[in-house]
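From the pipeline queue, job 12 of 40. The input is one protein chain; the requested action is below.

Action: predict structure.
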Amino acid sequence: MSESPRKPLVAWSWWIWLVHGALVGSLYLYMFTPFKPQWFKMTFSAISLGHEENYAVWWAGICLFIASQLFYRIASQCGSLRDGWKWAILALAMLALGFDEIGSLHEMVSKVGGWQALVPFALVFMAGFGASLFALFRQPGYRICALLVLLGIGVFGAVASLEFVEHNIELNKHGQRNRLIFEEGSELFATSLIIIAGLIALRRCGIDDRRLSEVIGNIRRLHFHELFVFLLFVIQFAALSMFGVAGSGNFSEGNPAGVFPIFVFFTVALMCQVVARNGRNRVAWWALSAVFLFTSLCQIHSFTVLLHKLEHYVTWFNSPPEIWLVTVLPLLGIVVLLAVTEKVNVRQLAIDLALLGGVLLMLYPDHNLPMTYYLFSGCVAFVCYRLVSLNSFKPGTSEAVT
């Protein structure tokens, strides 16, 4: 398909580069300048790379998720498995990288079975990437996309090698700071390359979505999206509740339990933006979008750390709200808004809430289970996703309605 007139790539995704710069700039300010006011010192732990549960890691995982959804959109546009398989493989690979970025899956696997246990996963990963990129190289107009993805993966590989080296050498304080800045900047640079590859491919395919939020949030343009979200929910929920994960609750490492609600709450935030642009009650839907984005951030342990720190500075936080209440608020907001607009699918709402209630009855007897909040949060994220998709998008079309 011919390339259609489009907005410049930078205009498409200016907010991505803005967040990149803010994160790296904050790290540089804290580590290499005397700029350390009390509020900055108090909140720096939220992006500190001294532990995995921080907002820099959240953002890197979100960027990989965005790349995954860009490739998913292209695969859906292709219309057939013969044309779309390479984009589907790239979408799955980026989604897996996003899970690993936030959940530290490869670290957990290597701790249990050594680095040898990672070899089968690496072989499958390399085979999928190799086949899809080779197919793109052979397709006129998409070689630049393949080169950008390959370069991005190469940067990720270099960062992984650096992590291996750092366990075998000792750096002074200045060297450690340089390594952290380089590592974070390199990962953000790698995700930027992959996202740019996805944006170029969108233009080459003639896809006329004007914003990234439309690519990800308009789920009617993504084939089998609801089925894939449900399968992901079932797989992660079953794995975490039945088997548990080594290292869960130790927030110096990643937490795979929080990945599903992080991605789904982020997706629902963009779905709300699509609905806001295409109908009435725009202010309410934009407000809900902001609430869902905040709820996605709350799945990172840094939110809990900030609440505890605020207890010493803000009187209202002497009795901070329960974390589970923060997760429930978006669900209540969706229900109220749909009820006011008289667009609630009452039957489906009753079924979904009954299922959620059953899950809570199974989970809450064991309050000491580290995964309890994240399993609960995953349930709420899935119900919110279902409510918005059932009541605000026309089945069989690419339109959002309010």
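Job complete. The radius of gyration is 21 Å.
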